[in-house]
Amino acid sequence: MLATPEKILTFPPKLRAADVAYDAIESMIVTLQLKPGSPVVESELVERTGLGRTPLREALMRMSSNGLIQQMPRRGLIISDIEAAEHMTLIETRRVIERLIGASAARRATPQHRKDIIECADKMLVAAKRNDLNDYMAADQALDHVVHEACRNPSAVAAVIPLIIKCRRFWYAFQHEGDIEEGARCHMLVAKAIAKGNEEQAAKAADGLMDYLESFARKVIG
């Protein structure tokens, strides 16, 4: 059963309505409930998320600006395609930003951030052992929220978010090629390094996570 927007809406509780809408739509894009090339129907999103048109439109504008949704002549908004051929350069770019975010989070995270980061990573491990892909991806999204808040670098966060969503969708689309427990282990190494406040180790663990995603992508692309 696919993850419902309601499950995603629980992470985290302090989001603005437009951020909640963004997360709900992200979940639907990542899990292919909104398929590549399919039209974006505003009334359908209102019904499926239970959210108002104003926050949904703001979320759609953000997704359009970062390439997750495209404006097509005579077709309106559609979900962007999965570009397998460009995926390796996407990971290459994400690697640089994730190293910065990991190191920054290790340096700047509050004690509560560090606790929450470990809890989210632990949820990923538990979900992976149960092979529960929906809980795994919800915990992954929650972990990103906390790490991004902890790093206190909005420019880096804004740059990495569309890359993360595209990576998640790619992983979900070709999950049969992946090792979910290895993915959870890589995330936990990042979480532990940040929780310890070790900047160098956090950057190295971020590299390890990108190595995992790169290896997975190579299996898919061939």
UniProtKB/TrEMBL annotation:
Ranges where the HTH gntR-type domain occurs: 15-82
Acyltransferase recorded as keyword: no
Record keyword Nucleus present: no
A Pfam family this chain is assigned to: GntR
Key words, A-Z: DNA-binding, Transcription, Transcription regulation
Coiled-coil residues: none
SMART domains reported for this sequence: FCD, HTH_GNTR
SUPFAM superfamilies for this protein: GntR ligand-binding domain-like, Winged helix' DNA-binding domain
PROSITE patterns: HTH_GNTR (PS50949)
PANTHER family xrefs: TRANSCRIPTIONAL REGULATOR, GNTR FAMILY, UXU OPERON TRANSCRIPTIONAL REGULATOR
Protein name as catalogued: GntR family transcriptional regulator
Source species: Undibacterium umbellatum
